[in-house]
Every structure is written in C-alpha cells, then in structure tokens.
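Why predict the complex rather than its parts? Because the way molecules touch one another can change local conformation, and only a joint prediction can capture that. The input here totals 1034 residues.
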Amino acid sequence: MHKPALAQGILFTDQYQLTMAQVYFRLGIHEQPALFEHFFRSYPDYRRHQAGYCISAGLEPLVHWMQEAAFGDTEIEQLRAQRGRTGEPLFADDFLTWLRRSGSFDGLSLRALPEGRVAHPHVPLTVVEGPMAMAQILETALLNHINYQTLIATKAARMRESAGEGQVLEFGLRRAQDTGANAGTRAALIGGADYSSNLGMSLVMGLPPKGTHAHSMVQAAMVLGLGELGAFRAYAETYPDDTLLLVDTVDTLGSGVPNAIKVFEELKRKGHRPLGIRLDSGDLAYLSIQAAKMLNDAGFPDTAIVLSNDLDELVIWQILTQIRSEARQEGIEPESLIKRLVFGVGTQLITSTGYPALGGVYKLVAFQHESRWKPAVKISDSPDKTANPGHKRAWRLYDRRGRATADLLALTDEVVENMDELVLRHPSDITKTRTVSREEVTLEQLHQEILREGRVVYEWPGLEEMRRVRREDVARLDPGVRRLIHPHIYHVSLSDALWRLKYELIAAARGTSTGNV
Amino acid sequence: MHKPALAQGILFTDQYQLTMAQVYFRLGIHEQPALFEHFFRSYPDYRRHQAGYCISAGLEPLVHWMQEAAFGDTEIEQLRAQRGRTGEPLFADDFLTWLRRSGSFDGLSLRALPEGRVAHPHVPLTVVEGPMAMAQILETALLNHINYQTLIATKAARMRESAGEGQVLEFGLRRAQDTGANAGTRAALIGGADYSSNLGMSLVMGLPPKGTHAHSMVQAAMVLGLGELGAFRAYAETYPDDTLLLVDTVDTLGSGVPNAIKVFEELKRKGHRPLGIRLDSGDLAYLSIQAAKMLNDAGFPDTAIVLSNDLDELVIWQILTQIRSEARQEGIEPESLIKRLVFGVGTQLITSTGYPALGGVYKLVAFQHESRWKPAVKISDSPDKTANPGHKRAWRLYDRRGRATADLLALTDEVVENMDELVLRHPSDITKTRTVSREEVTLEQLHQEILREGRVVYEWPGLEEMRRVRREDVARLDPGVRRLIHPHIYHVSLSDALWRLKYELIAAARGTSTGNV
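Output of the joint prediction:
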C-alpha cells in the first residue's frame, strides 16, 4: 500500500476531472480555450468572531506543483487499468495517448492576486485560461493549495492584529493535517506570524526556527534527581545566550519562576543575557503579571515572556485587555510588560479553528466557441452564488487618504481608467449602487500575470517582500474592516456593464432551461 | 525558497526537539532508555454533537516515515548553520557528529493500537521506548501523523453510523490542508468511507476512485449550444455503463431530472443500465423523494441518488429522518429510497469541522536511571491531565454478551489475567470504583508490538482487514456509546496498583517542588 508518490503528482486530483476531460475529448473541445476563475464567496466566520478581509497565499507552491506534474507512463498505466461497472476500460486508448502527449499544464496562462495581498469575496484569487481539459484537471490542486494557504494567512493576520507589536510564533506542526503542516507554516509566516517552531519549513522559508523546551526535559531531570533547577541549569549551560525556560512543569510561581531567576542570575554573573521564560498553562494574564514582577524585582526587566496554550486572536486580545486593566495595581507598567510578550499559537492558527476550510470555488466564466469567446454562467438559487461571467479586470479603489474603499470587477474591454464616473453596483442587491467621481479615487489593477502558456513571467517575491505587501495592504484598510468581531463589510462591486451582462445571461439561461426539456 | 524536501524528512519536527536533544547530550542521557506514551485526553466534541469513541489510524505511514527519516549531510549542514543571539553556533560539533552517526529511529521500539481499532481517552495509541534523544525528536511527527488520521477515521466512523447501509464517498481533497489531504483520504477509508474521489490516493489504497462530473461540463455544453441534455448525452456516450449525472446545474426537477431520464431511456434502448444522478444543492431530502418518484415512474427504480453539499453526520441523519416521515405521502417506500442513497462528504469529513485537531499528547512516563526504570510524572492542575506513570499494559474487558465494557490500564508486572477480581478505579475521581469478577469478563490486550529496536515485527494489514477490525470493534460497543449526540461515557479505568503509584508520585513531586526552590 506504500507508494505515496503516485498520489502527489498529477493524480493529486479528483477522479471526475479525468472523466470530464475524456468527455471534452469526445466532444472535441478538450483543447478549446476556456476561462476559469477561482474566488471565495464569503469571509471566514469563526462563529464567535469574523474576518473582514483575507490574505492571499499559496500561489508559488501551486505553480511549482504545476510545473512538475505530468502524465507519465506510471500515471497512464494506472488510468488504463481503471474499469467501469461492466469491466470495460473507463479511459479509451486515444484519450490516454492524447493525455500522455499533451496532458501537462504547459498550455495554461494564469493571472493572480500576489501572495500577501488583501483579498475580498468574489474578486478572483486566480484566473486560469487555456485548453479546456487541462484547465479542468487543474481545479482540485489549485483549490487545495490556495484555499488552505489563504485561510491560514488570513488567520495569522488576525493574530497579528490582536498581538499588536508582540511577536507571534507559529507552533502548529503537531496539530496539522499531516504534511499539510508545511503549507500552513508557510502561509502563517506570510500572513502575520514572525517565526515558526517548524524546523524544516522555517529553513525552507529562510528563517531561524524558534523553540524552547518541553516538560519532558524537566521530568527527565527530575528522575535523575536534578530537579527542575538542574534541568534549567543544563539548558542554560547548553544555550547560555539563548536561555528560554518553560516554568510550569511543577508550579509556575512557586518553583518555575524562582528557579528560572536563579539560573538567570548565574548566567548574568558569567556575562550572559537570559532570553526569557515560557508560560504554558493557567491564567496567562495573571501569571505574566506576577512573573514580570518577580523578574523585575530580580533585575531582569527585559526578559521575554512567551505565552502558549490554545491561544487565538480573542484570547490574545483578552490577555492584553486584562493586563492593561490589572497590571498597574501590581506595580507593573502595562505597556512595558506587553512589549515583552511573545505569543505561541498552535492549533487555532494551523487549523483555523471555527472555520477550517475557505470554500473557494473554481468556475467556468467563459469558453471559446467558433473562435469567439462566450461568457458562461451557472444559475444558482441566489445571484450572490452565481459567478460573474466573462473576461474581467479587478480594480482596487483608494480614496484621497489612501484608504482602500472598494474592489471593482469590470469587463476587460471597459476602460475604467478613463471614465469620469465609476458606477459601483452591489453584486446581488439591485437597489444598491454607489457612484464615485474618477478624481476622488486612485485605481490599482489587482491581478499580476504569473504564467503565460505555462511559462513563468513573474518574479517570485521573497518572504520579506510578501510580508511588506501584506503590511501595506492591511494598513490601507479602514479600521472597521480590520475589527476582529463583526467587522465592517468592505465593498466589492460590479461595473454597470458587467452587472448588465450577468443579469442578461441569467435571464437567457433561465429561458434555455425550460427549452431543454 | 522552493526546496520543500528538506521539510519532509527528519526536520519535519519542532525546533525544540533538537535543542532538547542537545541538552540530553550534554547531560549524557541522550542514549538512556526512555518510555513515552501518546494518548488523547478527551473525545472529539463537535459542539452540536460529540464522539463516544475514536478509531485509531495513521500508524503505517508514520512507521514508513520513521524508516526513511535520518540526519543526512544536508540536514546536519542546516543545523550547523543555525546561530544563537550572539552569533555562536546553536549546535556544537560533538552533538552534530553524534546526530549524523546515531540520529535515526533504529533504536526505538514501538507498541501501538492497530489501525481501525476503537480507541478511548488515556489509553495510549502508541508507546515508544528507546534512547531519550531520538524518542524525543520523534514526538512531533508521531503526533502529526496519528492525531490527524485518528481524528478523520473517527469522523468517518460517525458518517458511517448515520448513513446506515448507504454508501459514503469521501470528496474532501479540495478542502484539506494541502498534501495532508492524502492522509485524510486514507483515514476516511479506514474509518468508514467506502470510496474517495481522490484519484491518486484511491489508487494507492487499492480502490477505484469515484466521481461524476461538475457543473462546468454542463456549462461548457450550454455555450456550445448543446444544452444540459447535450452534456448528459456526451457523458452517457463516453460512459454508457457508468452514467451518473449531476442534475442541478439549471433546475433540478424542471430540467436536470427530466433530461437525465431522457438519456437513461436512450441508454436502456441500447442495452445499458444507467448508474444514477447526483443532487448537489437545495433541500436534499425533498429533492431525493421527488427525483425518486420521477425515476420510478420512468422505469428506473434502482438508479443511485448521490447526495452532496456540505453533509455531515447530523445532516445525513436529518435527511434520512425526513425521508422516513415524508416519502410515503408521496407514494415512495422510504427504505427502498434510502437503499439507493449515496452520501458524498467533503469539508466536514476532511477537516473534522467543529473539532479540527485531536489534541493527542506525547508524555514521558518512565526513564531509566542507574540501570533501573523510574516512573515519571508531571503534575497538572487536575489529576485527569496528569499522564499515568510507568510501564503499563492496556486491556479491554468484554462482558458475557461480548460487549466491550471497559478499558483498563494496569502496570506491566500486574498479572491481570489471573486476578479473581478486577478493581477498576476512575482515573481522577477517588470516589468512583467498580469491581468486576474475573469470570464475568473476557480480557484482551490492546497493544501490538510494531517495532523492535527499529525493525518492523508486525505484518501491516490491508485496507479490508483494517475495515473489518473497525466494523467488529464498533459492533462490540454499547449502542449508547455509538450515539451521535451526548453519547454514554465509556469506562476507562486504572488498576488499583497503577492508581496508587500515580498518586504517590504526585504527592512526592509536590514535595520535591518546594524543595527545589
């Protein structure tokens, strides 16, 4: 059963992509140009709190996968062996021959919102154009990679919002979905985490991995008769300039912090500067105030205090609020304590607890027939669920203060830049229209060209560049949109021309539907 | 930035495992035998509903990873390049030399609950014994692999419970955490899903992948002027004996089902038997009754009706309940309709929505010092969170009807088999004790030996065998334990001797703790 490589290449897809591809082959439309858009319909709703924006991520790993994935002999053999109910081969020889020869993503072009950018519903994260069959087969892997990383970058941005200036460490490796953890770490680092405990992936991303020690180290020292103090001393001797001690194995304030201080004093005498302590249980706000007091009194006012234990953005926020209201009574200046705090976030970040999947979809929006592009539409119960048809551009509008005020989807042939007035239509509510004068706003096109017929025409940004993009984008959001709970809803609008096209197509499809029967 | 292989080998771990390993090396205890146990503390609680048992999974992939993971030159170089705050190397040469030579999992022995077995809190899923440093480094990958697969096998078992005899298909690839999807598919197939849409992983598991087609195929045909009917015909011509049609692109009852029936009739005339339809939106209970009526009237009473669209165990249960109460009024025999249903489950299964991480932990429970094993304990706020110390065996007790009545953790040197009476102590509540006479119960040892000093001494069961084990184990549970909502709490007990050891150690550790300061 152990041949996992087979499941990581181009067969990392859903069976129906292949069965559909063969239907396209039979219809002779498998190499016909098609246009697919990938977008999500709503922001993550974590139940007790909600996102008002997302952070795009996952693009570069997807493109690397696309460049390596192909139907080799092994994959073709596996498909050839598949049988239908009556024992007949499911995939015919002529189709498999075509797939072996032409079944790569080399013919696809890809435009996308760069990684690290603020993303909103309905505005495509990626736009794929190329031969129908391969554009279809790409769907699953594209959704898999970008949905998850965007979900996690978004969650990390929320941790960043609530932690303020505090460092955020990603600790989720042991709580993730198997090797998916690495994608999660990558996305967390783009979206808002400063560092990660994930050793391998930190190195891949060019960052030093972060970590302290676990309870087991203290336990082992206790069995040896060295006690907690002995464990701390051994750690300090090994890492005299990087001593960060987990103080809650026995009793945080009764044993852990005093023992840590004893070791810190020993380090100080030898000319070293201790790094800090980690609290992993109990009332973290209370304990960090008390620990800070003890550390300050002992002459260590600058040591870090790392907090961990099922933190999420609201818990971090609550801890900071509590410190701001209580620390002074204990003689601690709240802001100086807050500056020392480091937040280690695991499960809640890597699984996006409360909203564990983004729900991005990949929809056919145009298709070439008789050498002409035709917009495609699929009617849903609500217009809000119906994808926006045709070739489009996505624009972001900034007001005079430089704040992002709306995203606008317009048809590619609309010269939005030169219009005197922009009509922003609500995507589904016919009564909601907003008109802005062109001179009130600055326009930015959101999508970058990434692949031109399979060739990368984009320079991949490094981690620091993606983080810079994210910081700048977030800073240009209205504070109401950045709120952790019940954020203000950002405007995503359709141009008047796109709006009309969409509703004409819906009406026409409704007409067609009865004609079909 | 694209060198992901580095993050998939032995560096697929947390940084602190390595920093601790070096401390053990400095203390000279890195090759000292240690005993770690991996267990979870509570059943998944999905908020609206709760699990009363788990299904173990993930063992074989973990062991394969262990056998391939090693500190090669690349890994050592990467560690050698790591620097502390002052620019000094974090890892010293002597430690790295040892790691390069001895840093594999070859010295570890592993006992485990086989995959597919029912699992309960506190009863170890895996028990690792071997040199301290490598047993410590294993922690992260072990938790990562087995926590996630056990979580998903458990969720799949719940879908199985609610679907009754109905087929369950796993559709989650696009909603998973990147490549972690493959582990999720594997676990779902062990735990209760019959098939998966995941092409590659189905093949790895030796199963035919399942799938139909997407809306995009119908949309493309509509652009071509063929309409929904033309799309269905193209599909039927390509797969005359495996025609399964998605009927909700335009209008389920007004267009989709009538068009499907038209195509089914054409197939029938040519001597083929249509497979069925898929409903992916709307009121699935209502639509499946109406669709069944139309299919029956047209002479297709056996075609499958595949349901999908954010299903979970409660939604499936609700659909079946509604069919049982409403179908007859529409002239449909409920049970014959239910037999045709197939449930496609995506997001809710692959992410275990509501409880996205198992929370299994890996705790040091014994350590060898001066050639003698010493039990280790870490005190927590509640005894329930304190790991059970020492070398233990796990037993399952079956009553005279063959029902599992309790799991019992006892010390290895206790001859439980020969006791006249078994005293079952509640792990944390001192007042709760249950005594069972030995003749009332049959005893089964739960753990199998998997690795003996790195060598596999276990024959890996195939998928069908793991599923058989799961079915038998689940069948031996009390129906109250299998309930989807507020299940009966299964008894996990400690033997009297283990209980006494645990509480003596806690008392001693509490004593030590103050002595330390």
